[in-house]
Amino acid sequence: MATNSNVSLSISIDRQKVLGKGAYGIVYEGTWMNRKVAVKRIQIENVENNKGGEEALQELDHPNVVKLYHVESNHDFRIYALEFCQASLDQKFLDDKKPGKYRGLMPPDEEVCLQLAQGMEHIHEKGLIHRDLKPENVLIWVDTTGEKVVMKWADFGLSKQVNPTGSHSISGMRGTHN
Question: Where are the alpha helices (DSSP H) in the chain?
Fold first, then answer.
């Protein structure tokens, strides 16, 4: 995972295609190395608040966890190239008339639960606690044939590493505040 502090960035952002907004940044559609990616852009002054998320994603490698491909910075932003997913689980439950409702293929409910449990097991095996479980942080990835659907955990900005005894302090913000 390379980090580049130069002004010229290898990640391109389509600012017209906003995929999501969070407490510390905005996620856009973009490209990196001719690959369609989700591009999370965080202002430099907020990077320390998201450091846990970056470190967590660097540790995780599992089909049910969104992949971090590349990280780079300029003097204004820390920019992450992440695996592109078609939707988040909350979009599945939007009213039928709402734009952005996910109407695509979904695995059976049991398979959704199994995939998410397997992803969470991997997260916990790596000694991490997610601390922000919600439908917006479950992404839906669909292969190019439209036949295979994989559920993926995302947004590790509030995650925390457990200590060698398996516990952690409970100080600091947990979960998303609306």
Answer: 47-59, 89-92, 109-125
Structure tokens at 27: 């996620």
Secondary structure (3-state) at 136 = helix
Phi-psi region of 33 (alpha: psi -120 to 50; beta: other; left: phi over 0): left
Q: Exposed/middle/buried for 92, CB within 10 Å: 0-12, 13-18, 19+?
A: middle
- Residue 96 annotated among the catalytic residues of the structure: no
Q: Are 151 and 138 in contact (CB under 8 A)?
A: yes
| List 61, 76, 109, 132, catalytic entry | 132
Helix H segments across 26-152?
Answer: 47-59, 89-92, 109-125
Token pair listed for 133: 């479980």
Most confident of 41-45, 66-70, 144-148: 66-70
CB 18, CB 85: distance < 8 Å: no
Instruction: Supply the pTM of this predicted model.
Output: 0.84
Question: In sequence order, which residues have a C-beta less than 8 Å from that of residue 43 and are 6 or more positions away?
Answer: 24, 25, 76, 77
Phi and psi, residue 21, nearest 5°:
-135, 140
Q: How do residues 113-151 score in pLDDT, each as one tens digit?
A: 999 999 999 999 999 999 889 999 999 999 988 889 999
